[in-house]
Design brief:
By secondary structure, the chain is of the alpha/beta class. 27% of the residues lie in helices and 13% in strands. The protein has eight helices and ten strands. Strands 1, 2, 3, 4, 5, 6, 7, 8, 9 and 10 form a ten-stranded mixed beta sheet that branches. Helix 3 crosses helix 8 and helix 5 packs across helix 6. The chain is globular and about 50 Å long. The N terminus is likely disordered.
Length: 342
């Protein structure tokens, strides 16, 4: 059954409010306050500052090896696939609404920088431990910050067997015309789609697409018209999606305030909890319920078995290791369950 996801406005404000970044002075103070975290980084300076605390300048990261020279990974995975939604928007995401850090939890990796290759490798290792084969990375279009990090994600996956796909977020705040969809899909194809570490199904590069509460079959129509480049497109569900004339390759739900969601024939999605910074929990964490959800997901045999999320810390839906759910393995209670149940 279709369920409403958390409001898109919440998510857009978190990543889009660049004007609220810390000044360099506040940055230094905040970084000092969180000193001692294993790989902590404070939020980036304001755009007017030339300082860099991480050795990574603002804008597009330093060039990485072209796809043709990168280490070839194992063969592409086949369905069913276990994947997790992933957010490469830190350190910007640690400061929101004047709050630092913008989370109720304490990530074991500290308040890190998503562009740090060591952090990315650590994340890939953690997901592989949890039998997660694919990261579905939030992406806001060409030349957005998330686009500058994405090549680093691909590069870090070389030789691991892990794959990445893009989560197209712009559909959640607008209704892009078919021409815009075609342009963005062409960009993804030309820049990432042939990379050995990008996910492909039957040779077609995979793109997941977010949505909003007002979507209807017109959304599916626009994506059918815009996808002239052969992408494998998986759309977020809306009421009546099964009756649309235009059908994508797959459907998924993104509603992590709900513990489980099953879209028969398409996807099974699970969430460990939802506790957005500054709010009361919408879904309390319960490791026993989580283990039952993982078992149900596996038993469903759904083509896409999805985890919401690996590291959305602002909404408190992460399964990434944290002080609050530490375990002897070092990966934490939630990844331990994913590791043992497959």
């Amino acid at each position: 059954m279709w369920k409403l996801s958390p409001s898109w406005g919440d998510r857009w404000l978190r990543v889009g409010r660049l004007g609220g970044l810390l000044s360099l002075g506040l940055l230094l103070a905040a970084t000092s306050a969180c000193a001692g975290a294993p790989t902590a980084h404070g939020p980036t300076p304001e755009p007017s500052s030339t300082a860099s605390l991480t050795g990574i300048s603002r804008g597009r990261p330093a060039p990485v090896a072209p796809a043709s020279t990168r280490q070839e990974s194992a063969p592409q995975p086949s369905l069913p696939i276990r994947a997790a939604f992933y957010y490469p928007w830190y350190p910007r995401g640690w400061l929101q609404d004047g709050t630092f850090p913008y989370t109720n939890y304490h990530p074991s990796a500290g308040y890190y920088d998503s562009a740090d290759p060591a952090v990315i490798r650590q994340h890939i290792a953690a997901m592989l431990y949890g039998n997660i084969q694919v990261g579905i990375a939030s992406w806001w279009g060409p030349d957005d910050y998330t686009d500058t990090v994405f090549p680093r994600l691909l590069h870090a996956a070389g030789g691991t067997g892990f794959r990445w796909a893009i989560y197209y977020e712009l559909e959640g705040i607008s209704n892009p015309a078919p021409d815009r969809i075609r342009s963005d899909l062409t960009y993804i194809r030309d820049h990432y789609g042939s990379d050995p570490n990008y996910l492909r199904i039957n040779g077609r590069f995979v793109v997941f697409v977010y949505g909003d509460g007002q979507d209807d079959c017109g959304m599916a129509d626009r994506w059918s018209q815009g996808n002239t480049v052969g992408a494998y497109v998986d759309l977020k569900v809306f009421p009546g999606y099964r009756s649309c004339d235009a059908q994508p390759d797959g459907w998924h739900q993104y509603a992590p305030a709900v513990a489980t969601d099953y879209e028969a024939g398409y996807s099974y999605t699970i969430s460990p909890g939802f506790w957005k910074a500054g709010e009361q929990p919408r879904l309390d964490r319960d490791p026993g319920r989580w283990r039952r959800a993982v078992r149900a997901m596996v038993a469903s045999g759904a083509p896409w078995q999805l985890v919401t999320t690996f590291n959305e810390w602002g909404e408190g839906t992460a399964v990434e290791p944290a002080r609050e759910w530490s375990s002897a393995s070092g990966y934490g209670t939630y990844l331990d369950a994913l590791h043992s149940i497959r």
